[in-house]
Amino acid sequence: MFSEAYMVNAFVAGTIVALISALVGTFVVARSYNFLTHSLSEIAFAGAALGFWLGFAPLLGMVALTAGSALAIGSLENAKVKSDNVTSAISALAIGLGILFLALGHSASSSATGILFGSVLGISTADLHLLFGMAALVALLLFLLYRPLSLLAFDEAGLLLSSKKKGLLRVVFLLIMALSVAISSQLVGSLLVFVLVTLPAASARAFQKSIVGLIAMAVFFALFGTWAGLSLAYLTNLPTSVFIALIEVGIYLLSLVMAKLD
């Protein structure tokens, strides 16, 4: 399997995606941003389609639109308008624009399939470098802001910052989310981003209570699902996202059973 260059690239990309998804996902689940993650994944679809239409890397299109949408949603989070309604409206608009961009770009159905369900087995070395650069940026932001983000996610009342600074921190976190969604889409596609961003972290809550423990367990679940999914995809010639989704959902269901037994 590892004699094939494309599988080496796929495993490297999958490892990067799993690590970032689990790290960010721990904070996403703690702040109950699961719905927002799903919405950003739909926006990522529109961004990738825009990239296909205009002729630049789909990943850059994902970053541009998800980041812009995250800023828009963040600015409305404390407004009188219900943010869930605004998020739903932006998601619906993004899906429509994504379909329009694909039509304008005369993109083949394979392009749409790659956006929706991931195309990690076809990832190029150039794409890998771009993915690594984005992941490094997310990891650096998480490292520098680990303490305030931990308080924001797990104990916002204890975050001794002015409301203006708290608002800025929320916006930064939304931008981190946007980047992680764009990164995760490379592996499981925009439709199944929540599989890696939310399920490993949600599953970890049945086994760990400390923040470090939650992150470590989420990373383990994400890596296990990714590596097993890639291996099964190679052996069966079926889409990687199918196996990753089945494995992560299975782990989550097991965690629910374990939580009930406790």
What are the SSEs and their pairings?
Layout (H helix, E strand, L loop, with lengths): L4 H26 L3 H21 L3 H19 L6 H22 L4 H9 L7 H20 L1 H9 L8 H26 L4 H5 L1 H6 L6 H26 L3 H22 L1
Give an overview of the whole structure.
The protein has 262 residues and is an all-alpha fold. The protein is built from twelve helices and no strands. Helix 1 runs parallel beside helix 6, helix 2 packs parallel to helix 4 and helix 2 packs antiparallel against helix 5 (109-117). The longest helix is centred in the first third of the chain and has 26 residues, at 5-30. The radius of gyration is 18 Å and the shape is globular. The model has no long low-confidence stretch (mean pLDDT 80).
Q: Please compute the radius of gyration using only Cα atoms.
A: 18 Å
Strand segment count: 0
How much of the sequence lies in strands comes to under 5%
Distance between the termini: 41 Å
Structural class by sheet pairing and helices: mainly alpha
**What can be said about the biggest beta sheet?**
none
Number of helices: 12
Brief digest:
The chain contains twelve helices and no strands. It has helices spanning 5-30, 34-54, 58-76, 83-104, 109-117, 125-144, 146-154, 163-188, 193-197, 199-204, 211-236, 240-261.
